[in-house]
């Protein structure tokens, strides 16, 4: 195809994509894919020197929706030039530096300062432009086509952090920011929504451009503000001054803004932001680098589309689209069946993605994926987690049905549906469940059997008939040495690791058993509370529910786990083979007649003869309750060296204080 026709096609395609993205808030492809097409058009325009009249490279944003009043921005709203990598960022900086040098050679009397830089996060949401007149919010608008936007005042007013009035009352200003939906809010919303939202950006944009402000309010949006685009009366000298103004006027400004004199430090900061990205509660698609000095900004000016004094550094995309090819079903150690999607291989965030999670059948239904085989879907991968399918690209398009299995794919046992999940109840005879249980038992947080892996579990299952964790403790050197890939050393290592594991504490042992719905913190709490394996095994639901953080489901899971004769026999077998399931350290008998018993004690300052932790343990053993802060309920404060505010407070409240460490030790020992 000749370049001209390619360009025409690209322009038509991109304009269609823009319409779906900007006007309908329902993108047809991912940003990553869009950017690739866009870059292709830019390259062709550069090569040919021709720019078609309706090329998207010449305009900002998209068409306005009908139904909203139009708002003409007092100053235009821009798009941002972008850099995909550090080289492109350096080219931007080279252009800036050159323009500044040119300016200075023409204006030697009043030169611009050396460029210095502000680095901000680039929020992925919807641009907001708020108009305040004499301190009152009078209009809020979308960016629209950059010159005219849609008035969405009622919608923006539902954002609780947007100030309706501000202290600054000197005429009219326009303030720009980004309306966003926090990821935690999106997750919560999706838990109960009839139609889950696929993406926080479109969720925010769709909510703000909904004619019904009640819908906007339900989405609980937030916003960050980063620019004063227009003002009747106020001029800023620097970016910093502008940010201070925004903060002083109660706008929510993101805390991650940093300033640099040196361009190399800017690139370091970008790496830092990239590392933080996964921990943020909102989407960012990059960082924005801006020139700090306002006079320099004016001198650099604007192209048709963006300011020359700022650039967006784009991060690797976390979202793309691909075709859902098939679904297979995996059996976990609790018998839970998890659907795993196979997709057409696609590059995403530096790796080739082929498998995605679908969580459970409830998830398939909620995401409207039941008839999605062979259709295009959005997938998302953040950090190292397994990519997730978000939903169909076009809700209307139907593909083949995902057929749910009726029998366990591993053992053929009929499956049972509980809530959103399918389960294979054939616990004693379903290979992946057994392998999963044994592998979990051996894992680091459980029995910590070194060098043990899934492969070991499979080999022991296949060749030595190991069917449950207890069988591990019957293995002999003669058994192991027969196995493939097992030399003398490896066999001895495994036996030694097994021997060591017998000394693991009760909490780890309980965790190793893999009680459904019961994680590490719960097993630790159980061990601390009961201090004895048989006491945990005999606990009743009523008893368990009374414990901290144990709900009905967890209590039921624990009781029915230990009611299972198979589990009981396995545990007794392990005990007889030398597993100790040792109670946590700290004395069992709590003294009731000591100086400290029944007293609420606060430890503060530095002790020299023992650590604060040790002191707390000793006190608890003597029947004291050790707490962190001094209040009227405190009976006694032990003040070590450099004790500060807690000591002062104790003195104010007239609480008994022991400041002499020797005296404290004497009292502790007296009771021992
Ligand atoms: N998937 C699709 O079909 C599709 C279609 C069109 C556009 N897009 C995406 O949109 C991008 C085009 O973007 P655009 O012109 O709307 O926006 P842009 O990427 O050029 O960025 C400009 C916008 O960034 C926002 N921003 C966030 N944080 C900021 C900060 N700290 N300082 C200044 N601005 C900040 C502002 O709202 C501003 O309007 C494309 O790169 C593409 O990824 C996708
Ligand atoms: Zn099975």
UniProtKB/TrEMBL annotation:
It catalyses: NAD(+) + (deoxyribonucleotide)n-3'-hydroxyl + 5'-phospho-(deoxyribonucleotide)m = (deoxyribonucleotide)n+m + AMP + beta-nicotinamide D-nucleotide. Pfam families: BRCT (PF00533), DNA_ligase_aden (PF01653), HHH_2 (PF12826), OB_DNA_ligase (PF03120). Its cofactor is Mg(2+); Mn(2+). Zn(2+) binds at residues 408, 411, 424, 430. Transmembrane segments: none annotated. One of its GO terms (cellular component) is cytosol. Keywords: DNA damage, DNA repair, DNA replication, Ligase, Magnesium, Manganese, Metal-binding, NAD, Zinc. Residues 591-672 form the BRCT domain. InterPro entries: BRCT_dom, BRCT_dom_sf, DisA/LigA_HHH, DNA_ligase, DNA_ligase_CS, DNAligase_adenylation, DNAligase_N, Hlx-hairpin-Hlx_DNA-bd_motif. SMART domains: BRCT, HhH1, LIGANc. SUPFAM superfamilies: BRCT domain, DNA ligase/mRNA capping enzyme, catalytic domain, Nucleic acid-binding proteins, RuvA domain 2-like. NAD(+) binds at residues 31-35, 79-80, 120, 143, 178, 290, 314. Its EC number is 6.5.1.2. It comes from the Bacteria. One of its GO terms (biological process) is DNA replication. The active site is at 122 (n6-amp-lysine intermediate). GO terms for molecular function: DNA binding; DNA ligase (NAD+) activity; metal ion binding. DNA ligase that catalyzes the formation of phosphodiester linkages between 5'-phosphoryl and 3'-hydroxyl groups in double-stranded DNA using NAD as a coenzyme and as the energy source for the reaction. It is essential for DNA replication and repair of damaged DNA. Belongs to the NAD-dependent DNA ligase family. LigA subfamily. This is DNA ligase. It comes from Paenibacillus albilobatus. The lineage of its organism: Bacteria, Bacillati, Bacillota, Bacilli, Bacillales.
């Amino acid at each position: 195809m000749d370049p001209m026709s390619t360009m025409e096609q690209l322009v038509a395609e991109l304009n269609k994509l823009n319409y779906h993205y900007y006007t309908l808030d329902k993108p047809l492809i991912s940003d990553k894919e869009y950017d690739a097409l866009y870059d292709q058009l830019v390259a062709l325009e550069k090569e040919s020197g021709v720019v078609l009249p309706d090329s998207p490279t010449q305009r900002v944003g998209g068409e306005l929706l009908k139904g909203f009043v139009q708002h003409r921005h007092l100053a235009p709203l821009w798009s941002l030039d972008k850099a995909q990598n550090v080289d492109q960022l350096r080219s931007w900086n080279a252009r800036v530096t050159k323009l500044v040098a040119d300016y200075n050679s023409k204006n030697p009397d009043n030169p611009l300062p050396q460029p210095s830089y502000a680095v901000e996060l680039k929020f992925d949401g919807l641009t907001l432009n708020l108009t305040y007149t004499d301190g009152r919010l009078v209009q809020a608008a979308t960016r629209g086509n950059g010159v005219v936007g849609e008035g969405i005042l009622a919608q923006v007013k539902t954002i609780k952090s947007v100030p309706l009035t501000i202290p600054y009352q000197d005429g009219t200003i326009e303030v720009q920011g980004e309306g966003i939906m926090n990821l935690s809010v999106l997750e919560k919303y999706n838990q109960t929504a009839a139609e889950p939202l696929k993406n926080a950006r479109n969720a925010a944009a769709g909510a703000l451009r909904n004619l019904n402000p009640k819908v906007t309010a339900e989405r609980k949006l937030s916003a960050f503000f980063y620019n004063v685009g227009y003002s009747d009366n106020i001029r800023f000298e620097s970016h910093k001054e502008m940010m201070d103004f925004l903060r002083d006027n109660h706008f929510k400004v993101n805390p991650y803004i940093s300033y640099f004199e040196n361009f190399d430090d800017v690139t370091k900061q970008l790496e830092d932001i990239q590392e933080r990205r996964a921990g943020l509660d909102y989407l960012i698609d990059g960082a924005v680098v801006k020139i700090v000095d306002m006079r320099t900004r004016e001198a650099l000016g604007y192209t048709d589309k963006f300011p020359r004094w700022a650039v967006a550094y784009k991060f690797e995309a976390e979202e793309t689209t691909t075709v859902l090819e098939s679904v297979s079903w995996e059996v976990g150690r609790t018998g839970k069946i998890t659907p795993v999607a196979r997709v057409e291989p696609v590059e995403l965030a530096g790796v080739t993605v082929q498998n995605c999670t679908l969580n459970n059948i409830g998830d398939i239904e909620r995401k409207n994926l039941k008839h999605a085989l062979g259709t295009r879907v959005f997938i998302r991968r953040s950090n190292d987690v397994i990519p997730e399918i978000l939903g169909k690209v076009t809700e209307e398009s139907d593909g083949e049905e995902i057929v749910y299995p009726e029998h366990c794919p591993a053992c053929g046992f009929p499956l049972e549906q509980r809530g959103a999940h399918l389960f294979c109840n054939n616990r004693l005879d379903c290979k992946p469940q057994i392998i999963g249980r044994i592998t979990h038992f051996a894992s680091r947080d459980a029995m910590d059997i070194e060098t043990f892996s899934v492969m070991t579990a499979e080999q022991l299952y296949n060749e030595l008939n190991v069917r449950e964790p207890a069988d591990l403790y019957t293995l002999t050197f003669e058994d192991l040495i027969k196995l493939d890939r097992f030399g003398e050393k490896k066999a001895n290592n495994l036996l030694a690791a097994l021997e060591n594991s017998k000394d693991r504490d009760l909490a780890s042992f309980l965790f190793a058993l893999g009680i459904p719905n019961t994680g590490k913190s719960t097993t630790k709490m159980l061990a601390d509370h009961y201090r004895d394996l048989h006491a945990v095994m005999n606990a009743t639901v009523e008893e368990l529910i009374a414990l901290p953080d144990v709900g009905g489901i967890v209590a039921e899971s624990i009781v029915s786990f230990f009611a299972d004769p198979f589990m009981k026999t396995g545990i007794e077998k392990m005990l007889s083979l030398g597993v100790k399931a040792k109670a946590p350290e700290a004395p069992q008998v709590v003294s009731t007649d000591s100086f400290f018993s029944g007293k609420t004690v606060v430890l503060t300052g530095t002790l020299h003869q023992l650590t604060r932790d040790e002191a707390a343990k000793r006190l608890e053993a003597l029947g004291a309750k050790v707490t962190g802060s001094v209040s009227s309920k405190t009976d006694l404060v032990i003040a070590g060296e450099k004790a500060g505010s807690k000591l002062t407070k104790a003195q104010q409240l007239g609480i008994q204080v022991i400041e002499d460490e020797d005296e404290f030790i004497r009292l502790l020992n007296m009771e021992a």
